[in-house]
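Q: How would the structure tokens look for this protein?
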Amino acid sequence: MLKNQFNLKNKNILVLGGFGLIGFETVQGMLHLGANVLILDKIFDKKKFNKLKIEFKKKISYKKFDLSKNNIKKFNKILANSTVYVNCSYPKTSDWNHNSFSRITDNVLKNSLNDNLVPSITTAIAFAEYLKKNKKSGSIIQLGSIYGLVGQNPNVYKKTKILENNSYTLIKSGLSHFSKQMCSYYSKDKIRINTVCPGGIKSKKDKNQSKKFIKNYSSIVPIGRLAEPNEIASCIIFLSMDASSYITGSSLIVDGGWTSI
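A: Here is the predicted structure in token form.
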């Protein structure tokens, strides 16, 4: 029985932000486990897509979708028999760097919440309602953060160019709690909603991850390093499987022990 639950064979899955750091790792893992994956992203990464298309052919597809536009009508048109929705979008507005206590304004806060938190919630509701209407069981996975559960540690940012970001913590904490709210309402319909809450993730493209930042972070986290993207993706994939059928309303912490001390 367990053997049959640890796969994604023929599951139809939507991955929002599927070309991103965690999203692409998630997409690749899901395809290898037999899923049909539709990538939703506002920017098409031809190189990444063609790489997958060669190996997985009709199992991988793409549609342009910008979460910040909050176009629920368009979202509803691309659900296409999917039973799993993964939101790997990253909240980053043009004024993202103005979210520290010393710089934040009403407009900065509103822009951040309206571009990410609000549409992340409304697309999750739309997907749940689609499953409910069609009497399908399914799984919704939001990408949260440890900073949706605890405050940002200022020691990590010492002698770096990084400042605290209030919108980020509000968005991630909002997603974690709203998943619990959705759980309380949609569980009767056999729809599961969970949030994966990672700690710091290693990224070669992130210019903020200076040697000093990496040293600061690694010295605080018990496991002594940042996470690899695939270590987060594997948890998302597990929550997409039937093997996790009794897990809902949870905030799965994947942080190398950060929140334990």
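The first strand starts at residue 12 and ends at 16.

The domain at 2-150+162-202+231-256 is CATH 3.40.50.720 (Rossmann fold).

Upvote if useful.
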